[in-house]
Amino acid sequence: MDEPTDAPRRADADHASYLRALYRDEAPRRVYIDDEDAVARTSSRQTLWRAESSSDPVPPPPPPPEGDLLPVPFAEEPAPLISVDGPRHVRDDEPDSTRFRRTVGYTLLSTLVPGLGLVGSQQRGLRRTGAFIAVASIFALVALAGFFAIRVQPEPGQGWFAAAAASAVGLASAQGMLHVLTVVIAAVGLLWVGLIVATHVATRSWDIPRGKRTVGAVLVALLAFAISAPLAVGANYAQVLSASIGRTFGTETNVISGSKPTVEAGNNPFAGIPRLNILLLGSDLDQERIERYEKLGYGLRTDTLILASVDTTTGATALIQIPRNVQRTPFPEGSEMAGLYPDGFRGEGDPAEWYVNSIWERVVADHPDLFAGQTYPGAEALKQGIEGITGLPVHYFAMLNIDGLRGLVDAMGGVTVNINERLPMGGSSNNKSATWGWLEPGPNQHLDGTHALWYARSRWNTDDYSRMQRQSCLIKAITDQANPTTLLTRFEAIAGASSDMVTTDIPREALEGLTELALKTQTQPMKRLVFVNGANGYDHANPDFEIMRERVDELIHPAPSPSSSSSPTATVDEATPKESPSASERSNEGAQDIADACAYNPVEEEG
Fold this sequence. Notes:
Elements: H1 15-23, E1 29-36, E2 43-50, H2 96-112, H3 124-151, H4 160-172, H5 175-202, H6 210-248, E3 275-283, H7 287-296, E4 302-311, E5 317-322, H8 336-340, H9 359-366, H10 377-390, E6 396-401, H11 402-411, E7 415-419, E8 423-424, E9 438-439, E10 442-447, H12 449-457, H13 464-481, H14 484-489, H15 491-501, E11 502-504, H16 511-521, E12 526-530, H17 545-556, H18 583-587, E13 592-593, H19 594-597
Parallel strand pairs: 3-6, 5-12
Antiparallel strand pairs: 1-2, 3-4, 4-5, 6-11, 7-10, 8-9, 12-13
Helix pairs in contact: 2-5, 2-6, 4-16, 5-6, 6-15, 9-10, 11-12, 11-15, 12-13
């Protein structure tokens, strides 16, 4: 640039003071430009100084003395660099690899703690925002941990983490909480992913090479997916579970039952109930049988009757299995059914039409006004019959149908059981044939839904009591295998199958406490009492209900076992092998541990 001819020459000593006066208090900024010399055909870099705040015309600076460099004003604090692409975030002399590694590090920080990587930004507002979000995230996590520390109350012998997991599952069973959880998860996911992207952009150098820019974009995409994928799955699970709860469970106000207890939503809704008794029913209703029943003029029958009595403090569970062919079922004194059948459930015609498994059907068909206004009249009648047999009040019922059970087992990926005797799938005892083959004896057999269904239903070559034992084994297998891993990996299928298979009067308000109680049962031994013909007071032709109720009371309130010091020492000949008991002998043992009843102990076939 040519110097004006009329510009005064200044002494070398006045050059620096001239520049300072020229720019006053404004810090100069430098712009690098490329200037091609038309004569030399070479590129040289020149530094141009300008003042942006002064409105007065600024005369061009005089050329520096020959051999001297232009002094840099305020050299003790280098001025920032600008370019047409915006402010530079790094020094010119810093290698590209170092700058890129720093950006990656900040991006990873925002992935680990939302917003933390923004502290590496050059903009003060972004740094403050990132620090605030990171602190808020840590505070929320600490508050959540504190909430659980206060809310979780481990039972004796229960670990704190197990109690916390039970409490979390219980909270998730509340439908309103699931809707809130879905919104929160979605919002957190969007914010977190946005912070990852913002951190990478805010800390990235403007002149990063194209290759590293591509690598950075791929890295951000992978990190965003790693955060968003599990959160999206969690939000989806919350909605699936909410829909399943809505289809299966009614509210306390719209499920009308004269026998169910009144509970309030919240922790431990069964505090005033020492034992919660739930009637588990299995109906043979599938689509084929529904069509057949409509033609024959009769409907639902409950061929499987199991009363689960759960200690609400410990979770210890006792299963009481009742034969479907119990005759003259008694009813509690003063109940509706006792007024209708004072001498027990009996009437004209075929005695098989008056077994306990037909109470639901006959009351609905013959006495539609008996439990008018209640949601499940047949269940109310059957509850009173089960109470008459066992002496225990029945609080809730849950009825499973065949198609639903098959779907549940398939959704869980199958169940593993021990098969102790050869079982036919289909067929009849008339020609001793099996329509769809046989289930062969063997330990730890993994069955899909169809084979598990026949394991529980098959009976023509055994008897009802053997089938009842296998049903309790299938319940135990499903309970044992409903672990967190199975539930998480197969959640949607299990939730869908469960809602299709269950009819129940359990209200949603009881689900939190009931879920926590169910998790406790997995850590407790499960006892079983089965009424077998000729034992425990049960005789098919003339059952002694008083003795049967005594056996139930002994199961629920067992007498303390005598100490070893007061009992004579028994000598066992370990060399003498024990004979394997038959199925009927095992069934006659009365109260027993289900794990023992379901162990592999094959039955020797006759002949």
